[in-house]
Specification:
Blueprint (H helix, E strand, L loop, with lengths): L1 E6 L5 E6 L22 E5 L4 E5 L32 E5 L21 E3 L3 E6 L13 H19 L6 E8 L11 E7 L4 H12 L5 H10 L4 E4 L3 E4 L8 E7 L11 H20 L7 E6 L13 E6 L1 E3 L2 E2 L4 H6 L8 H10 L2
Antiparallel strand pairs: 1-2, 2-5, 3-4, 3-6, 5-7, 7-9, 8-9, 8-13, 10-11, 11-12, 12-14, 13-14, 15-16
Helix pairs in contact: 1-4
The chain binds zinc ion.
Zinc ion binds next to loops.
Amino acid sequence: MKRTITHLADGRELIYFDLRDDADHSAVDTRDLPPRPYASELRYDPLMDEWVAVARHRQTRTHLPSADECPLCPAHPGSEIPSPYDVAVFENRFPSFSFNVGEYEQVGGLSEVRPGIGRCEVVCFTSDHDASFSSLSDEQVELVMEAWADRTAELSALPGVEQVFCFENRGEEIGITLPHPHGQIYAYPYVTPRTRQMLDAAARHRGGNLFADVLAAERRGPRVVGSNEHWTAFVPAAARYPFEVHVYPHRRVPDIPALSSEERASFGPLYTDVLRRLDGLFGVSMPYIAAWHQAPVTYRRDLAHLHLQLFSIRRAPNKLKYLAGSESAMGAFVNDVLPEEAARMLRESR
Ligand SMILES: [Zn+2]
């Protein structure tokens, strides 16, 4: 594996991860790019005890370009990536969080305003525009994991960063703006609400570690979708989405950098199998969100257990689940598919 750090025309960092040691990344980004936008502002919601990032520049993002205009396909005039690559990571041109801090005024009320420092990166899983994560080779998935591990370690060390989140949004139904296979990484300047809630539950839990106890119970139960020596994929008992799968390493580690090389190598074969089963359910490409839950940099880090949460909003061949009144306004989920039935359908898929 070879790592090469370069910079784009506007100063953003671009990092190549290559399988071959002789990869050549001497090509230079010669575009005339506008100055980088300022970091969004963070506004505190005192009722929810949560931060909201307000990013006004993101309305002008590139929307669903064709392959010859795709900014993630390498080595053409409009590309973000000047030379061919195996995996490439670069700073998002339209970031929600960045260290490029502008002026921020207080807005009154009980809402404190502070700059949204942090970093947002784009991870290109392959240079093949028409591929998908499920079609990556095991070797390519391992390289993506190397990139996630590298970025998690590096971003966690930045001043003010409290949590690093690697994720993939896939499908127009989820709202992706670029069809090229890619994911994103957010380095947040706070602990996200869901992570805080899970870790607080783990702190209240009696017995062993909460996540490890859940995993041990699920491994014996009816909702397992697949497993191998190091990982198990299961539909959680209280799944919120019609098709939701959690993938856990058997050994409790805080984050991707803490995985052994054997654990990293055995993730791809199981995960891509689960993704293909998801696509096989209705014979149509499934929109999904794949979210790595990693330990925050400091908050209750010792209680965390790395896992991947994969879920789709498609509940039938031509029906999507929308987060409507109960879910959006109350945070109270209603799921139309029995989790045991979803697990059975996924096991029998393909
Ligand atoms: Zn592309």
